[in-house]
Amino acid sequence: MTMTSISLPILHFNDVYRATPQRVSSSTSETIDVSQFAALMDDLRSKWPSRPDGERDGLVLFSGDVFSPSVESTITRGSHMDISLAKDLFALSPSAQRSHPISSEHGVDIILGGHDHIYFASRGISSWNDYDTSRKTFGAEHDQGDILVIKSGTDFRDLSEIIIKLVPTTPNSVRRMVISEITGRRHEVVPMYRSSENMSKLLKVLLSSVSSAMKTPVCRTTTVLDVRSSNIRLQESPSANWFSDIARHVYDDALCMKGCDGSDGVFFCAGTFRGDSVYGPGIITLGDVLEILPFQDPVIVLEVDGQTIWEAMESSLSTWPAQEGRFPSISGFRVEWDSRKAPGQRVSDIWLVTTQVNGSGAGAVQRGEEPVKNESGGKKYIIVTREYMAQGHDGYTALTKGRVLIDGECGSTLSTIVRKYLLASKFVNRMVRHKTQNKERSFLQLGTSGTIDGLHKEVGDASKNHQSNAAKLWEHAVDLAIHRARKRFHYQSHFKICETEHMSLVDDFDGANARKGRESISDDAVEAEDLPVVSPEIDGRLKDLGRPSDT
């Protein structure tokens, strides 16, 4: 059968985060939203030729991040513009193919990229309306018109309309067809554009479901979560400790891929935690978590030396007893300071807290400490912090000297991190209970099964010394979970589970039904049984020598 040339219409967009209305620019109050983007897409698709089955003949393609940044993207970024990748994979333009035929080369035809949040069409494009392909773009200095790369902006603001013309190659070629011409147009969503009625209805249902989900429990605390300024901005607090511990190992997988052995610790400030209220003991809802953690700046990772840590710590304690947001919240370090001394001279000692877990993480933990020396250019430490602080705000100018390992584009907000951890904890509880009841778990990933089996063994071993009824067994399992809560393996495994398993089984937001316009369904009795139980505590990681009673 002889192949003929074809034209393939494509609509491409990438990196979307917000479905709600967003301002077009900081200088105007006009907004756009996803319903207008959907209407634009519908209008463009309506121009495609019809197929025999009545559908339109073309492709809608997406790339990049969907509503949450990809941590892994920080590993594979290289050149932001994917120029080198396009050359390596022979995504060559029609003009470049004249001197370097690719019909017998394995590779790709075109790279439709994401993650950079910019609009870009390479110089190898035959023609492109409403975008100048000859403009200079940072990261694309090596684009000589020989490759095909397209990036279509971010956040439902841009849409690329592409027409690719393909011609058949000679018999026995590696590629059956190659691109002979590529044309396109950049479409920008504007405030006056009409809205899609169907998308508007769906968005209304989704946002209604989100509002309902805010009231659902995410964990149960055995102690008070006191985030009043008079508490967390003057001294070590259980709440700040707990949130900091959760965030410490969230990026460990990505850091290991960069040659680092995970993070050493966390450096937040007390101003991170809002609500100025007391929560618990008892049920904590998703709304409570978002009230405590309202900020949208991402959590990032820096590499710093000991001097930077000392300078940051001195600055964070310099305004005490004023209830400023700069007061520190840490994990992975132990600090002794003296509130009686003058600002800038209050830090006495800082230690890095090290832990080593035997076996799979379910066994004993060996704890050690090593001094953090106040010296420039010495040992480097990997710390998790907020982008807001890394930019020097709240007095943290010292952190601006750090080398960024995971940036804001690839990081997540603290509320997202905490929610992922709590979802994974709930999932683990559900799976352990299923194993106890011999229910089917074949859908689990191998690593998840190992984590579940280890925890189930702990419960089984503990039950030998406790009453065998289910209530007592699970009561002790909760105690075990609390005891294990700050182990490195615990947090690492839970974040991995949240990334690899389908959380819809335990998610408070019933996305599957919401996307179909249906009401969310949940089994409150089962939900309560699987809720993670937490017990934040003060452990002396931030000890004020000027207050002997401080513990």
Automatic annotation (TrEMBL):
Coiled coil: none annotated. InterPro entries: 5'-Nucleotdase_C, 5'-Nucleotdase_C_sf, 5_nucleotidase/apyrase, Metallo-depent_PP-like. GO terms for biological process: nucleotide catabolic process. Signal peptide: none annotated. Residues 516-551 are annotated as: Disordered. One of its GO terms (molecular function) is hydrolase activity. Residues 221-400 form the 5'-Nucleotidase C-terminal domain. Residues 538-551 have a biased composition (Basic and acidic residues). Belongs to the 5'-nucleotidase family. PANTHER family: 5'-NUCLEOTIDASE (PTHR11575:SF48), 5'-NUCLEOTIDASE-RELATED (PTHR11575). This is 5'-Nucleotidase C-terminal domain-containing protein. It comes from Gymnopilus dilepis. The lineage of its organism: Eukaryota, Fungi, Dikarya, Basidiomycota, Agaricomycotina.
